[in-house]
Design a protein that fits this description.
- By secondary structure, the chain is α+β, with helices and mostly antiparallel strands.
- The protein has 3 domains: 84 residues, Rossmann fold (3-Layer(aba) Sandwich); 70 residues, Dna Ligase, domain 1 (2-Layer Sandwich); 246 residues, D-amino Acid Aminotransferase, Chain A, domain 1, CATH 3.30.470.20.
- The chain is 33% helix and 28% strand.
- The chain has an 8-stranded antiparallel beta sheet, with helices on both faces. A 5-stranded parallel beta sheet has the order 3-2-1-4-5.
- A hairpin with a 5-residue loop joins strand 15 and strand 16.
- Helix 4 runs antiparallel to helix 5, helix 5 packs across helix 6 and helix 7 packs across helix 8.
- The chain is globular.
- The termini are far apart.
- The structure holds adenosine-5'-diphosphate (2 copies) and magnesium ion.
- GO terms for molecular function: ATP binding; biotin carboxylase activity; metal ion binding.
Amino acid sequence: MIRRLLIVNRGEIALRIVRAARELGLVSIVAHSDADVDTLAVHQADEAVCIGPAQAAKSYLNIPAVIEAARNCQADAVHPGYGFLSESPEFARAVKDAGLIFIGPDADIIDRMGDKAMARQTAIEAGVPVVPGSPHAVEGLEEALSVAEDVGYPLLIKAAAGGGGRGIRVAEDAEMLTKQLPLAKSEAQSAFGDGRVYLERFIARARHIEVQVLGDGKRAVHFFERECSLQRRRQKMFEEAPSPAIDSTIRKRLCESAVALAEHVGYLGAGTLEYLFDEKTGEFFFIEMNTRIQVEHPVTEMVTGFDLVRAMIQVAAGEPLSIAQNDITLRGWAIEMRINAEDPDHDFFPSLGTVKKLVWPTGPGVRIDSGLYEGYKMPPFYDSLVAKLIVWDDSREHALTRAGRALDEFQLQGFTTTAGLHRRLIEDSAVKAGAFDTVFLERWLAEPASNHANVKEVINEQ
Ligand code: ADP
Ligand code: ADP
Ligand code: MG
């Protein structure tokens, strides 16, 4: 039984979890840093507890401080959100050792699936195709060069513990691999505290398609796929569900492979299996699993009608899955636009300030997940994601039109965001046709603005 839920996160996801807790009749307690006293999540929660100073290392990443706070406020469960401690097996273990429920899979599963090199091995065992690459982490240069001969160039050197688009380097040939390997290893060591790297063939012209799963430890179901190919620096900017690139035959194979892998490890909780999809051949390859709720989960909620955050809390509390695969169907189309406090005209430089004026779009099929409010002062310490604008409609074409309508209603004064970029992006003919891959957005951003559709400016001023 869960009665008191400690939420160790900030921003829109902390608020999202507070909302799920309230609907479940749980007492929500937000654990926050000194810099986040005045956030909407803290205001909306039943209780709040400060876990340390602004720097994440001393608060949101501070395991002993979180465990102490959980004890002091008599929480019986801990939700880690995404980022921060959400994929830390040490944290999951510490929560369990303190006699509390971790809202997510067991530490052993995070160990196995959160480690990208190990997850590849597990996928192979479960019969899921992976990108050709090294069978496990590569040690010395000699081993890397010989593996690379089989894998083929260009290839990627990827940190086993990487995430958030960081810890990935390209090697075009043996010379570059020789140069990049030691750099990649020391970078991985300093960024993730784990210097292991592995090699993966670079799949050109791929689409990023991922499958949402939910397991209760015995059985797993999928909630279909999300298309997340529109990325900058390997970070998603715009996501949709379903994917415009796959038909029902491929959808079935892809989603069933995700369920097979989740069941193979006895997965408990919400999780996402990420794949690269080659449109020319119809092949898909597993790349990694995220053992947590993801930023873009709302598009899946919109097209399936299920509340994933509620469901992940229920399975963590020990409730068996109450739904069968056949209960989950796709309806309509959903799009998420990430509104980051960054200036797209100045190389996405972080933009900071106080919200002076804020008008959210509302009306049919519009959902906003955000911690912004008028008077809110953005702290400079954290991720730039400040809002997610999600729209739903009965078809992709209608959803794109609705996205434009919603952005036209939106008004923000105080700092620059990526809202205006999304307004132009959705008018692009390739985006309208659903014809893009993982490098499309970077190419599009490099074009002169005069190439792009002429649209009404989004009202978003400094
Ligand atoms: P999603 O698919 O949910 O967007 P991301 O991999 O982008 O997943 O991660 C979500 C959040 O967590 C982002 O804010 C990202 O910067 C952060 N994040 C994820 N993994 C790591 C990591 N290993 N190190 C630092 N930040 C991470
Ligand atoms: P992270 O843990 O940082 O999310 P991923 O392994 O999920 O890292 O890769 C992030 C992005 O990098 C993918 O969405 C894709 O755009 C690109 N990418 C990853 N692996 C490959 C690959 N083998 N070939 C081409 N692009 C890749
Ligand atoms: Mg990823």
